[in-house]
Amino acid sequence: MDSSDCLTILGNDGAESKIGIRERLGGVYGILLFAAGNGSLEMELVELVPPATISVLWQMPQFTVMALGECVVGHTALQFAYSQASASMKSAITCIYLFTALLGNVINVGILSIKMAESSLSHMIKSLIYTILLFLDFAVFVWVASGYIYVDVQETPEEVELLGGEETTGSPSVNQA
C-alpha cells in the first residue's frame, strides 16, 4: 500500500496506526476511532455516501445555458423596465424585478421540498407542476402585455447631464449617428 493511500494516526503511547483509504470522487467518508480492549487505537473507514457514478462535469452544459439565459433575460427585462420608468421609479423597478426573482426561487424550493418517494412518478409530477406554472406565467404575461402601451420617456435635463449630454428617447441602447 502506497503511503499516499494511508492515514497515519499517532496514539498516546507513540504507536502509529494506519488505515488504508480508497476514496472515490463524490463519496463522503468518515473515520471511526475507538479504543480496543488492549488499549490500542482501532480505526474503521465508513462510507457515508456512495461515490458518484456519473461525472459532475455533465452538469456544465446545463449551467452554461442557464447562466447565459439569465444574462440575456435579466438584462433585457431591466433595460425595458428602466427605459419605461420615470426617474423617481427606476430604483423601485429594479427592486421589484429582484423581488420577483426571489419569489421564483422560493417557489422552486417549495416544489423541490415536496416529500415523495424517489421514483420516476415523483419526477413526472414535479415536472408537471413546473409545466403548469410555466403556462400560467405565460398566460399572465400575455394578459399584462396585451394592455401595455409603450411610453416614450424623455429624460430630464439632470438625467441628460448624467448621461454625458446625449439625449436618448425610449431605448437607451440605440445610438443614432
Automatic annotation (TrEMBL):
Keywords: Membrane, Transmembrane, Transmembrane helix. The keyword Transmembrane applies. This is MFS domain-containing protein. The keyword Membrane applies. Gene3D superfamilies: MFS general substrate transporter like domains. It holds the Pfam family PTR2. Its main location: membrane. One of its GO terms (molecular function) is transmembrane transporter activity.
